[in-house]
C-alpha cells in the first residue's frame, strides 16, 4: 500500500472519530456499558503501552480512551496501535460481554496485532452496528454468516486476520454496505455471487487470500471505486464485465493471480484509473494501443507476464510508479513519457531489452526517486551521474548489464539501503560508504583491493579480479 493510501485511511478514520466526538455529553455512562467495557478489558491479557489505562471502575466510561457516548450510552469503541506507536499491541480475545453495549454503532479494533480467537456470537445481537473494523489482528475461524444479520452495516473490515473458509453468501444481505475489506486472510473457494447484491459498495478488498475461479462479474457494483483482487488464485481471462466499472473505478489490482489471455482493449474507458496492477499473471500479446488514453494513471504494474512489443506511447502527465519488468519487451531505451514525469518515485524496467548508455537516461525530475531497477538489460556506461542526482534514492538495482565505471566515484544518497551491481564491468575499490547499506551485491565485476569492514557475506563480493580481506581471503 502506498503512503498516500495509508494517509487516506488514517484521515478517514480520524474524520469518523471527530464526527462522533462532538456528541460526547457530560453525564456518566450507563452501568451496562461500564460493565461491558470492563469485561472487554478483562479479556485483554497484555497491554504493554497502556492503551486501556484510563478504563478504571468508578470513573465515567464516556471519558475513557477510545470511547464515544451519546446520551450517556456508548456508541463507539475505537482502539488502535498505529505504526507510529512502536511496541503497542493488545493481546487477548474479544469478550462476549461486548453485547452489553446496546447502542454501539462503531467497533474499531485497528492494528492491535494480537487480538485472537473468534468473533463472539453476541456481537450479532447489536442491531445498530454500522462500522465494524477489526483490522490487522489475529482473529480466526470462519467469517460468521451472522454478519448478514447486521443489515445497517455501512463498513465491514476483517482485513489482515486469519479467517479461513469461504466468504459467506449471507453478506449479500448487507445492502447498505459501502466498504467490504476482507484482504489478507486465508479465505478460499470462489467469490459468492451474492456479493453482486452489494450495489452500494465503493470499496471491495479481497486481495491476498486463496480465492479461486474466474474473476467474478461485478457489473452490478456501479459505485465501485476501489477493487482489490490481487494475490489470489483467480484464473481465466480478465473478464469483459470489468469494463462496466468504467469510468468510475480508481484502483484495480489483479496482480499475482493465474490470469491468461490478452489485456482487453477497454481500459481507455477508465478515465479515473489511478492504479492498475496486472503483474505476475500469464497474460500474453501486446499492451493495447488504447493505453495511450490512460492519462490519469499514476501506478502501472504489468511486470512478470508474457507481454510483447510494441509498447504504446502513453500520454500520461506524470507516472508515479511503473513496473514493466520480466516480460518479453525490447524497449531499447527508457520511454520519453517516463523520463519526463515530474513525480516518478519508482521505475522498474528489469529485463526489458534496454540497449542504451546509462548517461542517456536523463530524467526531468529526480527529486522523488526512491527505487530504480534496470537489472538484466544491456546498459553500458556509468550510473555515477544519475546517482549523484537522486538525492533520496533507497534502492538501485542494475545487475546483469555492462556498466563500466570506477566504484569509488559513486556517491551514495544518505537514504540508500540497497545496491545491486552484480555481473557488470565495475572496477576500482569498494568504498567504505557501502557499510551504510542493508543489502549489497557487487559480485562478478572487476573490483580490486582491500574490502572495508562490513557485515556482508562473501557472496556479495565473489567473482571479482582481486578483492581481499574479510569476508574474502586475507590480503597478501
Ligand atoms: C504477539 O504476536 C506475536 C506474533 O505472532 C507473538 O510472537 C507474541 O508472542 C505475541 N505476544 C503476546 C503477548 O501474545
Ligand atoms: C440472524 O437472523 C436469523 C434470521 O434471519 C435469525 O434466525 C437468527 O437468530 C439471527 N441471529 C442472531 C445472532 O441474531
Ligand atoms: C441477492 O439478491 C437477490 C435478488 O436481487 C436475492 O434473490 C438474493 O436472496 C440476494 N442474496 C442475498 C444473499 O441476500
Ligand atoms: C495456475 O494454473 C496452473 C494450471 O492452469 C496450475 O498448475 C497452477 O497451480 C496455478 N497456480 C496458482 C497460483 O493458482
Ligand atoms: C454480467 O452480469 C450482468 C448482470 O448480472 C449481465 O447483464 C452481463 O451480461 C454479465 N456480463 C458478462 C460479460 O457476463
Ligand atoms: C483515445 O481517445 C480518443 C477520444 O476519446 C479517441 O479518439 C482515440 O482513438 C483514443 N486513442 C486510442 C489509441 O485508443
Ligand atoms: C555531483 O553533484 C555535485 C553538485 O551537486 C557536483 O558538484 C559534482 O560535480 C557532481 N559529481 C558528478 C560525478 O557528477
Ligand atoms: C549476488 O548476485 C549474484 C549474481 O547476480 C547472485 O547469484 C547472488 O545470489 C547474489 N548474492 C547476494 C548476497 O545477493
TrEMBL record:
Gene3D superfamilies to which the protein is assigned, alphabetical:
Ribonuclease Inhibitor
Q: Where in or outside the cell is it found?
A: Cell envelope; Membrane
User: What is the membrane topology noted in the UniProt record heading this document?
Assistant: Single-pass membrane protein
Report the principal subcellular site.
Answer: other
Q: Which InterPro entries does this entry report, sorted A to Z?
A: Leu-rich_rpt (IPR001611), Leu-rich_rpt_typical-subtyp (IPR003591), LRR_dom_sf (IPR032675), LRR_N_plant-typ (IPR013210), PGIP (IPR051848)
Q: Which Pfam families match?
A: LRR_1, LRR_8, LRRNT_2
* Alphabetized UniProt keyword annotations: Leucine-rich repeat, Membrane, Repeat, Signal, Transmembrane, Transmembrane helix
Residue ranges annotated as transmembrane are none
Query: Which first-to-last residue range defines the signal peptide?
Result: 1-26
| Entry-linked PROSITE patterns | PROKAR_LIPOPROTEIN
Annotated Gene Ontology cellular component terms? membrane
| All residue ranges annotated as the Leucine-rich repeat-containing N-terminal plant-type domain in the record | 30-69
Q: Which residues form a coiled coil?
A: none
Q: Which family does it belong to?
A: Belongs to the polygalacturonase-inhibiting protein family.
Q: What is this protein called?
A: Leucine-rich repeat-containing N-terminal plant-type domain-containing protein
Q: What species was this sequence derived from?
A: Kalanchoe fedtschenkoi (Lavender scallops)
Amino acid at each position: 500500500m502506498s503512503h498516500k493510501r495509508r494517509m487516506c485511511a488514517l484521515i478517514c478514520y480520524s474524520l469518523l472519530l471527530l464526527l462522533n466526538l462532538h456528541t460526547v455529553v457530560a453525564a456518566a455512562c450507563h452501568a451496562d456499558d461500564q460493565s461491558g467495557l470492563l469485561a472487554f478489558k478483562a479479556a485483554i491479557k497484555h497491554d504493554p503501552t497502556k492503551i486501556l489505562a484510563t478504563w478504571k471502575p468508578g470513573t465515567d466510561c464516556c471519558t475513557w480512551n477510545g470511547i464515544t457516548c451519546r446520551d450517556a450510552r456508548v456508541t463507539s469503541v475505537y482502539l488502535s496501535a498505529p505504526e507510529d506507536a512502536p511496541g503497542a499491541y493488545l493481546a487477548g480475545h474479544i469478550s462476549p460481554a461486548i453485547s452489553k453495549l446496546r447502542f454501539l454503532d462503531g467497533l474499531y479494533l485497528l492494528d492491535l496485532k494480537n487480538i485472537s480467537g473468534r468473533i463472539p456470537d453476541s456481537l450479532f445481537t447489536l442491531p445498530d452496528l454500522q462500522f465494524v473494523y477489526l483490522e490487522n489482528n489475529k482473529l480466526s475461524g470462519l467469517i460468521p454468516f451472522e454478519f448478514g444479520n447486521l443489515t445497517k452495516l455501512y463498513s465491514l473490515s476483517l482485513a489482515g486476520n486469519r479467517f479461513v473458509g469461504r466468504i459467506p453468501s449471507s453478506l449479500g444481505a448487507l445492502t447498505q454496505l459501502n466498504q467490504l475489506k476482507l484482504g489478507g486472510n486465508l479465505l478460499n473457494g470462489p467469490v459468492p455471487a451474492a456479493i453482486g447484491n452489494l450495489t452500494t459498495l465503493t470499496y471491495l478488498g479481497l486481495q491476498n487470500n486463496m480465492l479461486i475461479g474466474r474473476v467474478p462479474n461485478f457489473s452490478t457494483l456501479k459505485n465501485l471505486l476501489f477493487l482489490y483482487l490481487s494475490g489470489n488464485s483467480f484464473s481465466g481471462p480478465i473478464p469483459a464485465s470489468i469494463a462496466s466499472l468504467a469510468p468510475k473505478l480508481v484502483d484495480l489490482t489483479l496482480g499475482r493471480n493465474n490470469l491468461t489471455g490478452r489485456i482487453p482493449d477497454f481500459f481507455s474507458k477508465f478515465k479515473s484509473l489511478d492504479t492498475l496492477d496486472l503483474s505476475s499473471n500469464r497474460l500474453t500479446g501486446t499492451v493495447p494501443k488504447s493505453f495511450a488514453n490512460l492519462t490519469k494513471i499514476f501506478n502501472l504494474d504489468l511486470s512478470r507476464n508474457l507481454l510483447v512489443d510494441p509498447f504504446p506511447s502513453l500520454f500520461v502527465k506524470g507516472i508515479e510508479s511503473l513496473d514493466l519488468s520480466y516480460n518479453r519487451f525490447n524497449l531499447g531505451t527508457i520511454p520519453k513519457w517516463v523520463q519526463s514525469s515530474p513525480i516518478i518515485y519508482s521505475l522498474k524496467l528489469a529485463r526489458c531489452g534496454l540497449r542504451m548508455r546509462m548517461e542517456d537516461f536523463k530524467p526531468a525530475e529526480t527529486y522523488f526517486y526512491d527505487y530504480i531497477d534496470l537489472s538484466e538489460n544491456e546498459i553500458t556506461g556509468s550510473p555515477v551521474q544519475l546517482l549523484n542526482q537522486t538525492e533520496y534514492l533507497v534502492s538501485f538495482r542494475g545487475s546483469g548489464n555492462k556498466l563500466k565505471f570506477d566504484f569509488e566515484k559513486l556517491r551514495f544518497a544518505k537514504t540508500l539501503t540497497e545496491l545491486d551491481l552484480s555481473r557488470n564491468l565495475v572496477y576500482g575499490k569498494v568504498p567504505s560508504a557501502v557499510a551504510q547499506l542493508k543489502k549489497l551485491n557487487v559480485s562478478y565485476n572487476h573490483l580490486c583491493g582491500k574490502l572495508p569492514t562490513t557485515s556482508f557475506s562473501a557472496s556479495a563480493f565473489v567473482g571479482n579480479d582481486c578483492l581481499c580481506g574479510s569476508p574474502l581471503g586475507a590480503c597478501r
